[in-house]
């Protein structure tokens, strides 16, 4: 398995500092949850790691198996085995889901090692089945006209087919009804093995009833302020975030 190390990460957007020194290490085989109130920088963390141009890293490092991720081009990050499911996946007009998936798989596998069309179709059909996704979706343009739930299922479809080393899933549970939530969780749990590490960003504890994290981290005001086991998520569900602010003397 791979290891993603985030060390003292500071990130600014338009000269405003959003992340103020984040430390997190995710190893293959581990599921980590990052929770926290809205606006505390959870999505900023995900976008900065994946190399979104708007996010300026002013200090700190991100290493994948010791390699500097921040020095890599965005497509190199994917090739190295990083995967990001965004909170708001974008629509890609003119590119079908199936074409997008196939070229993503091939980008990850590298030149000379492309997946055959037959094997691709076989793998895609089996993943579509597993996730209970209508086969027609593969021929529609990526995310165009997809409902919120379809977009999230599609992210999990990508995850199953790309088999990344480390995945960062930003609010993969938002807007899902209970059936979709179960399917999305089933997909993520299917990947659980020593060669897969996952950072699950979520505002609510609900998803963690289906995916048991090894570690739970609370982010506030651009920092990880508290870490614990699954019981920490349960307490947040019951009591909210106020007690942490009081305990740590954090002002709004
Ligand atoms: P979370 O995901 O925890 O809700 P975000 O990372 O989305 O938080 O946002 C953290 C802070 O950064 C917020 O104050 C938000 O307004 C600001 N921010 C995030 N993205 C942008 C952006 N693209 N441009 C300007 N400000 C942003
Ligand atoms: Mg967010
Ligand atoms: Mg994606």
UniProtKB/TrEMBL annotation:
Keywords: ATP-binding, Nucleotide-binding. Coiled coil: none annotated. One of its GO terms (molecular function) is ATP hydrolysis activity. This is Fe-S cluster assembly ATPase SufC. SMART domains: AAA (SM00382). Belongs to the ABC transporter superfamily. Ycf16 family. It comes from the Bacteria. The keyword Ribonucleoprotein does not apply. PANTHER family: ABC TRANSPORTER I FAMILY MEMBER 6, CHLOROPLASTIC. The gene is sufC. Gene3D superfamilies: P-loop containing nucleotide triphosphate hydrolases. InterPro entries: AAA+_ATPase, ABC_transporter-like_ATP-bd, ABC_transporter-like_CS, FeS-cluster_ATPase_SufC, P-loop_NTPase. Residues 4-246 form the ABC transporter domain. PROSITE patterns: ABC_TRANSPORTER_1, ABC_TRANSPORTER_2.
